[in-house]
Structure formats: structure tokens, C-alpha cells
Amino acid sequence: MTDLDARYGRKQSRSKRNIIVLAAVLLAVFFTWAISVSFFTPEKNRTITAEAVSFTKNEPNQIGATIKLVGAGASGTLHCTGKALDSSYAIVGYKEFDVILLGETEKRFELSINTTSKAASIVVEACKLQ
Fold first, then answer.
1. Which of 37, 58, 66, 93 is surrounded by the most beta carbons within 10 Å?
2. Residue 41: pLDDT band by 50, 70, 90 thresholds?
3. What is the pTM of this model?
């Protein structure tokens, strides 16, 4: 402190210490938020994946598949959409369906989709727990 600072009552700033305290507080808030999101996510926001395991051709304008759902032990009604694709990956059929989950981590079921022409595969996408 110089003589002028003492004479006019100026004090040295504590900005460096204030910045460190602010950074520590913000870091603590971030970690609290990250932990709460990781461990306390509502069941409706859990990720559930679906994939076709095997295919069966029922009729010329219909395709069937065994679908495997993999989830984190969720319970409730799962609403999904399925698309039937031909050999050039064009969509030839579409179906929305619901599956009831009772806490299973994996569930298999049969799905059949009516098509406008011969289909080669089924893709399940956009599953959402309701």
C-alpha cells in the first residue's frame, strides 16, 4: 500500500481470491447437477432400444419379425414405431404399436407389418415410455 492509498482510505482489491471462490462454487453446483441427473432421472426418460432379431415372411404383402427390447428395468407402456423396408431400403410399410413392460430388462415379441410390396427387413425406431 502506498502513502496515497492509506491517506484516502483505499484498500487493495481481493479480486483474485473472489475469482477462486466463485469458480469453486460454480464447480460444486455443476457436480451436484451432474450427479442428480445421472442417478435421479425419471423413468420416462430412460433409454430403451429395440432391434429386429429374426424375420419371417407371412404373405407377399406382409412381413413379420421377432423384436428384442432392451431397457433398464422400466415399467409402463412403451410406444414405438416400426418401418418395413424393401431391398433398396425404401419404406414399404409402417406401424405404430404399444408394448407393456413390467420391469424386465429384456423382452421379445412378434411384430407383423402390412406392406405395399415385398419387404426385406423391419426397423424399429422412436420408442418412448409413456
1. 93
2. low
3. 0.60
